[in-house]
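Blinded run. Sample ID left blank on purpose so nobody reads anything into the name before looking at the predicted structure. Input follows.
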Amino acid sequence: MAVGFLFPLMAQEPEIVEEVEKVEAVEAVEAVEAVEEVEEVEIVEIVEEIEVEVEVEIEEEEKVEVLEGDTTNIIGRVEVIETPNHTRVSLGKNEVIIVEENGDTVIVGLGSKGISIVEDGDGVQINVLDMNEKKSEASKHRKKKFKAHWAGLEVGLNNYLTPDNSLVLPPGEEFMDLNTGKSWNWNLNVADFGIGLGTNYVGIVSGLGFEFINYNFDGQNSIMKEDGTGNIVEYVPPFAGFITKSKMNITYMTVPLLMEFQIPVGHHDRIHFSAGVIGGLKLWSNTKIKYTEAGDKSKEKNKSDFNLSPLRWGVTARAGYGGVSVFANYYMNSLFKPGTGPELYPFSIGLAFTP
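Blinded prediction complete.
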């Protein structure tokens, strides 16, 4: 009997196992579905949170302001400008997208690159563009500003004329004779200001400069103030005959007022010429004598105002090409104060170099 009872149980055992496996499979599927439902809920919640944050950010920070015309400005972000021929999208100070329509040509720029689409009778042509080159070409056609020719460096020679416009000094004033080849004039014009008169070819010019004058005396002498009268007279030092150089140095601050005209020559340079008045304010002056005595080199220096006119004015003219020009200055008031020294009218000629 025991054996007979056992056989039926063994026969039923596979069916029980199959039932258990089915139950376990169903439970596993339900568990997976539950996990998926949880993940979906979490994803939906995350998306909703992002949408809420974006909406809040747009509401608080990216307020859209519609300006006059076809300009839309998203404050602090993007500016869109639409005209009949252009659509420009700018991000901050940088143009990001540019769309230009001109007849049968459409240009689309993205940053520094772009493409042009041209429709004509032969079909459609597409070309790649460098937007930086396009901008530089456009800038060439912009109206140029008037450029003055004053600031720079000038170098020339000094001398002076008598009241009858002669280089020959009258008797008693020969001690003022100069060695013109060694009487240098250096001008450092540090700034200029040009105002075009409705064009970039004609304008008014002013500025600021410093004039360094060197009068190199031709004889074995210098000058001094005479005791008692204070007038300028000849000074003959005890070592006369051994003088190697005797000169007077004067420094002025200068301000011009010129009318300048320009004529284009070629693509870049121009012929320019100007004329006007120039004023000067004396800053300092001195005399210096270099001499050799008994083989020893020595020098004597004397600082004084030497009765020089503290203010002076004159006429000036200059003409040149590009950055090089010639200049000439002639002063209408005497080198010395009236009645205190020889009546002499300074002038200088030379070359000017402007950037």
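Unblinding after everyone has recorded impressions. Residues 1-12, 52-69 have pLDDT under 50 and may be disordered.
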